Amino acid sequence: MTNYISVLEGLLFVAGDDGISLEEASYILELERSAVRQLLDELKKRLEDENSGLELLLTASHYKLVTKASLKSYIEKYAVSPYSSQLSQASLETLAIIAYKQPVTRVDIESIRGVQSSGSIQKLLLRDLIEEAGRLETPGRPKLYKTTAYFMDYFGLESLDALPDASDLFDLDSEEANQLFRDNHDLFEELEMRSKEHHEVEEEKE
Hints:
Shape: globular
Structural class: alpha+beta
Number of strands: 6
Radius of gyration: 19 Å
Strand order of the largest sheet: 1-3-2
């Protein structure tokens, strides 16, 4: 027997900050909207009863899983922790896609990376390296992301034109191009090297 609440929880996790509408959940689960709404209410209550760090939120007709407001200080501390000060490979890949393709949606990022990217996007938002850039005028109105002024400072760039050449990665739309992107570590290493060099220069000035 299908555990629809667990399925909904998984869908909400994958949907990330974009969330999922009642209509979309109804279509995926092949259930009436009233039944899905009841399942969502049960999930919301379960998260509350289990004293979870997550809660179910309804905004702009979309349901999403978010961290509770009471955890804000811990999440912000995690984002700037010395243990996570160096960007991970996943974060660098996500950031590179946004830098070269901006404005871009989460779905577009994931279609290039081939993996779920909500966590990386949230961490980049917390570190002020990216920001929301409106919404795409398509069904569901997904959020668009772009880099920030702090991104330029973080990597010591005067303009986006100073980014390493990535034409080989983005001129193709095929799966071969996506695989090339996932396998291309030199680009990310150069981005991180630029960041380290910039920070070392700034420390010397101080």
